[in-house]
Amino acid sequence: MDMRTKDIVKENLLFILGLGALALIRPIMKMTGIMDLIGQAFGSILMTVLISLAWLMIVLFKRTAYPVVILVFAGLSYALFAIIISGIASPLIDGKLQGPLTNPLAMVSVFAVNAVWGFIVGLIANALRRKG
User: Would you say 19 and 71 are in contact if contact means Cβ atoms under 8 Å apart?
Assistant: First the structure.
């Protein structure tokens, strides 16, 4: 019998939050200007791929029983962290609030895109887990 999603999240909350926090390397690189050194477009894609690979390797190494659920919620936790950091950092850096907090539709988009990101990586992990 499968565990309910709520139970999976509850039992793996710290793991999920840790995976979400790991993805914060991307916005931190952007805020610190490191991404400008690599190039915004290339750097963003590169970091997304590297974070995806890290998430994939971590859930496979940990032998996570529910990688799709774990990674969807990791994506959602990353979205929440990124929105909060944007809300704190943008007034400090730019002198005014910018980012998803200023537009409810953008906030929904951030959560949706990152849930889909986690879902895709979770499906890959699930497929690799079953093969191995």
Answer: yes
CB neighbour burial string for 8-40, b if at least 16 within 10 angstroms, e if fewer: bbeebeebbbebbeebeebbebbeeeebeeeee
- C-alpha distance across the termini of the chain, in Å: 22
pTM of the model: 0.91
Amino acid code (one letter) for 65: A
pLDDT value of residue 23: 97
pLDDT level of residue 1 (50, 70, 90 thresholds): very low
Which distant-in-sequence residues (6+ apart) come within 8 Å of 95 by Cβ?
none
Task: Write the DSSP symbol of residue 86.
Answer: H
Structure tokens at 100: 């998803």
DSSP label at 124?
H
Nearest to 55 by CA among 69, 42, 74: 74
Determine the average pLDDT of the residues in 88-95: 83
